[in-house]
User: Which sequence fits this backbone?
């Protein structure tokens, strides 16, 4: 199976600063890497994803990078805002849409 | 489209009781999965299905059963509830796409076993 590790578990930044969350995966067969944001008491929702044939993807203030050789991928949030405060999960898709998730990063953006 | 619908939202069980968590999706997705979410441990895969009549185990299947008789429904059964099964349960569905497609989550079921 797959194993996904995520760091850090908590991250506190000042509003306007950048935040970076890193994940590693174990199985080179994984080929799709989504990032989910989960607000307190809510369901996880996709914010960005990247496929294994792409090295970087951007969507406004968020970006994801993928290094297939090293088996790691990262989420970058620039110009953070208080509404970015949430728990973020990385995931790797392995075999028939089986998703394996990291343990989550609690991001706190201080105004 | 309602997306992925889970019932109930909250449930309290006594140790040893059984129950079924319901999950339904109206997006005609082939793939459906059940996850449990515990503090500090992310989402862990319990069981998943690649289509009607086909199910398989995930990372933490013990104590849970599933079946998939239709594309739309994927119920999760707790056979004999234990306090260790206290958790938030999420059902998710996704479609088949080369290179991957996002998983859509239900609103979750908060289960407490006393």
Assistant:
């Amino acid at each position: 199976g797959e194993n996904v590790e995520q760091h850090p578990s908590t991250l506190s930044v000042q509003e306007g600063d950048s935040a970076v969350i890193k994940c590693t995966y174990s199985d080179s067969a994984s080929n799709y890497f989504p990032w989910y944001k989960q607000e307190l008491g809510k369901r996880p929702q996709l914010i960005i994803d990247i496929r294994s044939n792409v090295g970087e993807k951007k969507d406004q203030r968020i970006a994801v990078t993928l290094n297939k050789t090293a088996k790691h991928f990262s989420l970058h949030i620039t110009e953070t805002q208080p509404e970015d405060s949430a728990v973020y999960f990385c995931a790797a898709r392995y075999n028939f849409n089986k998703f394996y998730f990291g343990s989550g990063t609690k991001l706190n953006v201080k105004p | 489209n309602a997306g992925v619908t889970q019932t109930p939202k909250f449930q309290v069980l006594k140790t040893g009781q059984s129950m079924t968590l319901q999950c339904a999706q109206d997006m005609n997705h082939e793939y459906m999965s059940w996850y449990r979410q515990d503090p500090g441990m992310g989402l862990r895969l319990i069981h998943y299905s690649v289509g009607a009549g086909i199910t398989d185990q995930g990372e933490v299947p013990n104590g849970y059963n599933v079946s998939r008789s239709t594309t739309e429904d994927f119920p999760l059964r707790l056979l004999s509830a234990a306090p260790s099964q206290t958790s938030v349960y999420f059902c998710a569905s996704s479609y088949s796409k080369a290179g991957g497609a996002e998983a859509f989550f239900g609103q979750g079921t908060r289960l407490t076993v006393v």
Summary: The interface with chain A takes residues 31, 33, 35, 40-45, 48, 50, 58-59, 90, 92, 94, 96, 99-103, 105-108 of chain B (CB under 8 Å).
